[in-house]
Design goal:
It is built from 13 helices and eight strands. By secondary structure, it is an alpha/beta fold. α10 (295-310) crosses α11 (317-334). The strands form two sheets. Strands 1-8-5-4-2-3 form a six-stranded parallel sheet, covered by helices on one side. A two-stranded antiparallel sheet has the order 6-7. The protein is globular. The protein has two domains: 11-176, Rossmann fold, CATH 3.40.50; 182-384, Up-down Bundle (Dehydroquinate synthase-like, alpha domain), CATH 1.20.1090.10. α1 links the parallel β2 (31-35) and β3.
């Protein structure tokens, strides 16, 4: 196991009716900006619960943060923060709203020329404006980590940011919220969380026995609850395990002491930026080709994954590793997730070359756990994903 340091300061408030505890978590003298997305929280009762918890606060609202948090929209929210002298941010939504709030937390205290610098120059945020979250869609794990991804429509870019100053102070997780989530978004959430674990697990053996078991446990749990969630989102036991699995998949714990990959995410973000494809679905497009292309360096962990998660017992290491990839593809298909770029757009020719050039321009010359995936190799992987 590799050396590591681990600190996660986010307080988790988990369970039925947990939103009732909101008023205990925000400083009493705070000027609060309430941030949310397209307005679904006003239809499912969450908005009323949050407003009740904020009864004694001075609040301003900003809605309309899109599914891929858009830079131009967030700049409008930043103006509100400055004009209204906001001192505390509250994100009520899924990963997109929370990611957008993290950008605002950083931008609100940034003193540089333009807030886009935070993303384009990869500026680490040591201390941002304090914020909390009320999670409405399990998927990204953003409610318990310090990373975010922001889209800029005018340049068709999707870039990451982060830093220790961007952990939420608290996150409220009530599994009951999933009862109103459309099946497509539930499938996306399950796929997103599943792939988050794979990115931290499917590398090479590193004698991090407990970390492997943590990762495998999350994967097995997601597989187990998936049919229950899709059949009946009101199943509270399944919803609880789904929500906590999504959080645990990307709160930093399972990546400590082990090599991680994240190349699938890097490629997937570009597909979202260019075509507007749902983030989770871009991961399902890229993952199978990524594992096939890098088969020789990943086959030991792929075989272990096949044995422990999918209960594959037949054949040698190569056989189990190949079968594990096919099991993964089948799982995505069971969720209703297509796994080829051509399933989403007919205008895919030239995409691989375009993304490879972007990586070259940014200096991303060695992705993956071995830093060996050059832009040329990225191009090959993406062509395999057509």
């Amino acid at each position: 196991m590799n050396n590591f340091e681990f600190k996660n300061p986010t307080k988790i408030i988990f369970g039925k009716d947990a939103i009732e505890k909101l008023e205990n978590e925000i400083p009493k003298d705070a000027k609060v900006l309430l941030l949310y997305g397209g307005g679904s929280i006003k239809k499912n009762g969450i908005y009323e619960q949050v407003k009740k918890g904020l009864t004694n606060y001075d609040i301003v609202e900003f809605g309309g943060i899109p599914a891929n948090p858009e830079y131009a929209v967030l700049v409008d929210a930043l103006k509100v923060i400055k004009e209204e002298k906001v001192t505390y941010l509250l994100a009520v939504g899924g990963g997109s709203v929370i990611d957008g709030t993290k950008f605002l937390s950083s931008a609100a205290v940034y003193e540089g020329e333009t807030p886009w610098d935070i993303l384009s120059k990869n500026i680490r945020t040591e201390k941002g404006m304090p914020f909390g979250t009320v999670l409405t869609l399990p998927a990204t794990g953003s409610e318990m980590n310090s990373g975010a991804v922001i889209t800029r429509k005018e340049t068709k870019e999707k870039l990451a940011m982060g830093g220790p100053g961007l952990f939420p102070e608290f996150s409220i997780l009530d599994p009951q919220v999933i009862t109103s989530i459309p099946k497509r978004q539930l499938a996306n959430g399950l796929t997103d969380a599943f792939t988050h674990v794979l990115e931290q697990y499917l590398t090479y053996p590193n004698d991090a026995v407990l970390q492997d078991r943590f990762a495998e446990g999350i994967l097995q749990t997601i597989i187990e609850v998936t049919p229950k969630i899709l059949k009946d989102p009101t199943d509270y036991k399944a919803a609880s395990n789904f929500m906590w699995s999504c959080t645990m998949a990307l709160n930093g714990l399972i990546q400590k002491g082990v090599p991680t990959d994240w190349a699938i995410h890097a490629m997937g973000h570009e597909l979202t930026a260019i075509f507007g494809i749902d983030h989770a679905r871009t991961l399902a497009i890229v993952a199978p080709s990524h594992y096939k292309f890098n088969f020789e360096t990943k086959k030991e962990k792929l075989a272990q994954y096949g044995e422990r998660v999918w209960n594959l017992r037949e054949g040698n290491t190569n056989d189990k590793a190949h079968a594990a990839i096919e099991k993964t593809v089948a799982f995505f298909h069971e969720l209703g997730i297509d796994t080829k770029l051509s399933d989403y757009t007919k205008d895919y020719e030239g995409t691989a070359e375009k993304i490879a050039q972007r990586f070259t321009d940014r200096g991303w010359l060695g992705l993956g756990e071995h830093q060996s995936l050059s832009p040329e190799k990225v191009e090959e992987i993406l062509k395999m994903s057509y």
